[in-house]
């Protein structure tokens, strides 16, 4: 199987290619990046700073209930490295109030303010009005999603999926990590487990294990039995960032058979099938077209 890892020279070339892309796309305009304290937003912020300079870059982080202190500290260190003020926006209570209001207004949908899923989606979605407000101040919104997240559906189309420019959506997480070493990303950020950061102890691999068990994005809160959780943990035991990237690449781009993927990656046939089902479901569910509209009549009315 073709290796998704970049050579040192390829990583350097890709870094330079992204910087030139950002220079051309931004054309000297000011840009805003939402920082999470994770690897992807760290890399994107550093790339944008290289492209247009720190004076044209706005950084913000949303303070949320249950966020880990290390994520806030990572964001502050990043801002210090780039010599950019970090705007710390306190929305701690809003996601739960928001889901409470939805639950009261639309009981048929069974929104769960006391669950993990709905409040986490709200934490992500409530970044959108911040981006929208900065956009109307003349800022270009820069996205931070990577290719792994996009191909597995780990994004909200009207949340973190919204951006004017997405400079790393073509890179798998493994490749983002490789480029981070060239940009000065701090080692604690590089080495920490990938996480959306919506609750303490959350990791992307655990979230992915639940989605693989479900064989589709989990759309609303559900109960998992002890037997379910045992199976989820067995799935998680087979996962690593690089293995996930290799499997997604093999399925989506190399069209390899399950037996070949199993031989190349060591992932079980059963979990390879789960990946196939998740990728298909995520594509149908998360990648619906936007802005569908009728064309004007021939007379322009």
Explained architecture:
The structure is a single chain. This protein has two domains: 8-91 and 126-191, HUPs (Rossmann fold, 3-Layer(aba) Sandwich), CATH 3.40.50; 204-286, no CATH class. Helices cover 53% and strands 6% of the residues. The chain has helices spanning 8-26, 39-52, 69-82, 94-105, 117-125, 128-135, 147-152, 173-183, 187-191, 204-214, 226-237, 241-254, 258-265, 269-286; strands at residues 31-34, 57-63, 86-90, 140-142. Strand 1, helix 2 (39-52) and strand 2 form a beta-alpha-beta unit. The longest helix is centred in the first third of the chain and has 19 residues, at 8-26. It is an enzyme of class 6 (ligase).
Summary, kept brief:
This protein is α/β, with parallel strands linked by helices and 301 residues long. It has two domains: 150 residues, 3-Layer(aba) Sandwich (Rossmann fold); 83 residues, no CATH class. It has 14 helices and four strands.
Distance between the termini: 55 Å
**CATH topology category name of the largest domain:** Rossmann fold
Q: Indicate the CATH class of the largest domain.
A: Alpha Beta
In CATH, the homologous superfamily of the largest domain goes by the name HUPs
Fraction of residues in helix: 40-55%
Q: Count of DSSP helices?
A: 14
Q: At CATH's second level, what is the architecture of the largest domain?
A: 3-Layer(aba) Sandwich
**How many strands, what sense, and barrel or not for the largest sheet?**
4 strands, parallel
The rounded Rg comes to: 20 Å
What is the averaged pLDDT score? 94
Domain count: the total is 2
Record the strand order, biggest sheet: 3-2-1-4
Spatial shape: globular
Low-confidence stretches: none
Look at the helices and sheets and give the structural class.
alpha/beta
């Amino acid at each position: 199987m073709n290796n998704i890892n970049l050579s040192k020279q390829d990583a350097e070339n890709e870094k330079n290619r992204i910087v030139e892309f950002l220079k051309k796309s931004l054309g000297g305009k000011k840009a805003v990046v939402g920082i999470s304290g994770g690897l992807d937003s760290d890399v994107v912020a550093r790339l944008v700073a290289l492209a247009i300079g720190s004076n044209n870059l706005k950084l913000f982080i949303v303070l949320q209930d249950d966020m880990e202190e290390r994520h806030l500290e990572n964001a502050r260190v990043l801002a210090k490295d780039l010599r950019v003020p970090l705007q710390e926006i306190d929305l701690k209570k809003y996601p739960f109030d928001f889901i409470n209001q939805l639950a009261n207004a639309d009981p048929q949908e069974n929104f769960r303010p006391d669950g993990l899923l709905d409040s986490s989606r709200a934490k992500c979605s409530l970044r959108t009005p911040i981006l929208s407000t900065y956009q109307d101040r003349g800022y270009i919104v820069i996205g931070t999603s990577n290719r792994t997240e996009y191909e597995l559906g780990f994004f909200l189309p009207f949340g973190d999926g919204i951006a004017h420019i997405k400079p790393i959506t073509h890179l798998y997480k493994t490749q983002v990590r490789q480029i981070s070493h060239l940009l000065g990303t701090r080692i604690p950020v590089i080495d920490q487990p990938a996480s959306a950061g919506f609750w303490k102890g959350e990791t992307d691999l655990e979230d992915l294990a639940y989605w693989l068990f479900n064989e589709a994005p989990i759309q609303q809160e559900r109960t998992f039995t002890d037997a379910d959780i045992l199976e989820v943990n067995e799935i998680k035991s087979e996962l690593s960032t690089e293995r996930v990237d290799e499997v997604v690449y093999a399925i989506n781009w190399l069209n390899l058979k399950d037996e070949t993927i199993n031989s190349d990656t060591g992932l079980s046939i059963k979990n390879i099938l789960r990946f196939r089902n998740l990728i298909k479901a995520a594509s149908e569910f998360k990648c619906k077209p936007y802005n569908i509209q009728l064309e004007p009549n021939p007379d322009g009315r």
